[in-house]
């Protein structure tokens, strides 16, 4: 199946989402509710990541994208930011060989230049190690912002076409950080908020949105099944009428 842009062509609609993108929110509130420090929620959140990676691979999802740290999360107290960085290092350390053994490719996207060198080289090593794996691609968005992504892509596009003044979507798309993946079919946000928080601003144009009050550390295989079931009941029209769709499928 080739990757199509949802705005320039009507894409195929897979029964099981090929690409699921998740805002893993609610770790802090999960911990606070239990009178625990916020970091306990982040630690527990890593277990939920493991569960969801496994469940997605078993369901035949090809791309799973996880928002781990936004370009705005630097605004948090320094202590929480540094704990999150340490957690990122330990999780990479522990999980990469498991991902590799399961034929899963790991990608980390975002402005990685702001991370310390040790973390940057661990990320590069993990990506190298898993680069040829084919079962599923897990993308972790770290120091990622949808606006950052669009701006960096514009910079590269302009440099690739010196002197040009008119540009098309097709010229921009290959420079976006996740150009290797189709646009997400299903977006999930846990934790009760109903907003995009500067996640994949460009790529979510026609993605089906699913919001749940479940805090991320409590998100289970059953929660994922519920989100996929909801997706399977949607009518993805991409601008057309319901009657046109019925005609196509009859
Ligand atoms: C999401 O959980 C994890 C990150 C943003 C790193 P939060 O830490 O935002 O949890 P809440 O929203 O405060 O409960
Ligand atoms: C979005 O969650 C970012 C991640 C989950 C990494 P936030 O908790 O930072 O979002 P806001 O601040 O509530 O919009
Ligand atoms: Mg939050």
TrEMBL record:
Substrate binds at residues 26-30, 38, 42, 70-72, 74, 76, 189, 195-197. Mg(2+) binds at residues 25, 208. Its cofactor is Mg(2+). One of its GO terms (molecular function) is ditrans,polycis-undecaprenyl-diphosphate synthase [(2E,6E)-farnesyl-diphosphate specific] activity. CDD domains: Cis_IPPS. Belongs to the UPP synthase family. NCBIfam families: uppS. This is Isoprenyl transferase. It comes from Pseudoduganella danionis.
């Amino acid at each position: 199946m080739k990757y199509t842009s949802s705005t320039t062509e009507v894409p195929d609609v897979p029964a099981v989402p090929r690409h699921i993108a998740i805002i893993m929110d609610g770790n802090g509130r999960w911990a606070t509710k239990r009178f625990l420090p916020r970091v306990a929620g982040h630690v527990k959140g890593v277990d939920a990541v493991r569960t969801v990676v496994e469940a997605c691979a078993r369901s035949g999802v090809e791309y799973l994208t996880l928002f781990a740290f936004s370009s705005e999360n630097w605004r948090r107290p320094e202590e929480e930011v540094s704990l999150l960085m340490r957690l990122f290092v330990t999780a990479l350390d522990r999980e990469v060989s498991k991902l590799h053994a399961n034929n899963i490719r790991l990608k980390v996207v975002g402005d990685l230049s702001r991370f310390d060198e040790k973390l940057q080289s661990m990320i590069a090593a993990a990506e190298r190690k898993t680069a040829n794996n084919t079962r599923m691609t897990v993308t972790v968005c770290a120091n990622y912002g949808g606006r950052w992504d669009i701006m960096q892509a514009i910079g590269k596009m302009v440099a690739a076409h010196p002197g040009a003044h008119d540009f098309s979507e097709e010229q921009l798309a290959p420079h976006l950080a996740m150009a290797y993946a189709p646009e997400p079919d299903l977006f999930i946000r846990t934790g009760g908020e109903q907003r995009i928080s500067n996640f994949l601003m460009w790529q979510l144009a026609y993605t089906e949105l699913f919001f749940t009050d479940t805090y991320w550390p409590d998100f289970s295989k059953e929660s994922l099944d519920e989100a996929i079931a909801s997706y399977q009941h949607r009518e993805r029209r991409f601008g057309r009428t319901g009657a046109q769709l019925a005609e196509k499928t009859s």
